[in-house]
Amino acid sequence: MSSSKLLRGTFILTLGVLLSRILGIVYVIPFYQLVGKQGGALYSYGYVPYTIFISIATMGVPLAVSKFVSKYNALGEYHVGRKLFRSGLVLMSATGFVAWLILYVSAPLIAPFVVNEDGPGNSIHDVTLVIQTVSFALLIVPVMSLIRGFFQGHESMGPTALSQVVEQLVRIIFLLAGCYMVLRVWHGSLVTAIRFATFAAFVGALGGLGVLIWYWIKRKRFLDELLQKDRGTLHLSLKEMYKELILYAAPFVFVGLAMPLYQLIDQFTFNKAMASIGLGAISEDAYSIFNVYAQKLVIIPVTLATSFSLTLIPTITKAYVQNNRKQLRKYLNDTFQIVIFLTLPAVVGMALLAEYVYAAFYSYDPLGTEVLRWYAPTAILFALFSVTAAILQGINKQKFTMISLTGGLLVKLCLNYYLIAKFETIGAILATTLGYLLSVLFNLWIIQRYTKYRYGFVLRRTTFMAILTAVMSVVVVPIVKLVEKLLHYNGSVIHSLMIVFVGGIVGAAVYFYLSERSQLLYYLFGDRFSFLRKKRKKAVS
Fold it and tell me: Per the UniProt record, which residue ranges are transmembrane (predicted)?
C-alpha cells in the first residue's frame, strides 16, 4: 500500500471517529431538554451495563482481527484471514446472543443495586425495563464490529468510517425523534421515552451493519481475487488462530472497559450513599449531572488530546523494537508534551467557565457548575491513562495496564461510598480522580522501568505550560466578568453561549500567542506553524 493511500485511509478513519464522537456529544443538548435529569439518570442506568457487556462480548476481537488480517495479508496468506473472518462471524454471533441473554435475564437482579424501591425517582421496575431494552443491541454490534475489523485489516478504512457515522446518525435521529414523539406528541411516560432512547442503539447498529453489507457486496469480487493470489504455505488451525488473536485482543478489552467500570461503581453506590446522608431525594439528579451530562463535557478535551498524541504510538513501537533509545526518548517527550499542551489549558478553561459552559449546553444549575468545576481537571488523568496504556502496548508490556486498571478500580470501589457520604457528589469525583491517579502513576513507573526514560524534561515543560495557562486565566477571568456585566447575565443559554465563545476565543488566542512567542509551538509541532515566523519577519522588516 502506498504511503499516500495509507495516510488517506488513516485520515478517513480519524475523520469518521471524530464526526461520530462530535455527534455523540452534541445530541445530549436536545436530549437534556427533552428528558431532564431523571431521564438522563435512567438512560445511564441502562447504558453503562450495556457498554460493559459489549466490551466483554466483542473481547477486543474486532481490532485484533484488523491486526491479524493485516499481518497475514502482508505475507500473502489471504486464506488465513478469510478463515478467521468466517469463524469470527459465528463466534461474535454466539457471544452477542449469550451477552444479550445474560443481560436481559439479569436486569431484574442488577436494578435493585442501582435504585431503592421506596426512592422518589426511578423505580426498580423502570431500571429493569431500560436495561432489557438496550440489551437487544448486543445481538448486532459484535458482528458489525468484526466486519469493520476485517475491512481495516485490508487497509480499507472507508467502510468503518461511514458505518460509524451512519450508526451514530441513525441512533441519534431515532433517539431524539422517539423521545419527542413519546413525551410531546403522545404525552407518554418518561420510562417509555428512555426505552425508545436506549433501543436506538439497536436501530443505529442496523444502520451501521447495512452500510457494511453494502460495502461487502460491492467489494466481494476484489476480496475473492485476493484469495486467488494466496501462497498457501500456512495452514493454521482455529485453535492457533484464536490463541494469537487473544494476545492481540486482551489490551483493547481492558483499556476500553476503564471508564464504564468506573461508572458502574458509581451506578451501584452513588444513590445508596446519598440516601445514607439524607439526600436520597436529589441523588438521581446529582447522579445524572455527574455521570451523564458533565462527563460528556469533560471527555471533549480528552478526545482532542489523545487523537493527536496516539498517532505517535507506532513510531514509539518501532524505536523500542530497534532499541533506538534516542528516538524513543524523543517520541515519548513529544507524546507527553502534546497531551499536556492540549489538555491543560482546555480543562483549566472549562473549570474557570464551568457556570457558563454547563448552562450553555444544558441549563443554569449551581450543582452542575460545581460538579463540572471539580470534574474538569480529571480529564488530564483520563488522557494520560489512555496514552500511557497505548505506550505500554507499544513496548509490549500491556499486561501492566490490566494491573494498573485493577488497582485504580479498587481505590474507587473502596473510597467511593465513604467519600460520597463525606463530600456528597464531589466525593464520587474525588474517588475517580484518586483511582485514575494511581493507574497513571503506575503506568508511568512501568514505562520508566522498561525504557529507562526520565521525566525531568517533561516536568519542566509541564511547569512552563502551567505558567502559560495561569497567564491565560489571568487575562480571561476579568474579560468574562466584564462581558457578564455588559450582558446583564441571567443564566440563559444565549448569554452563556456568548460568554463561553468570548472566553474561549480570548483564552485560546492568549495561550497560542504565548506558545508561539516562546517557541514552544515549534518545539512540539515542528514546521506546521512555520508560516507564523515568516509573517512576523515580514512585519518587522
Answer: 12-35, 47-69, 89-115, 127-147, 168-187, 193-217, 245-265, 297-317, 338-362, 374-395, 402-420, 426-446, 458-480, 492-514
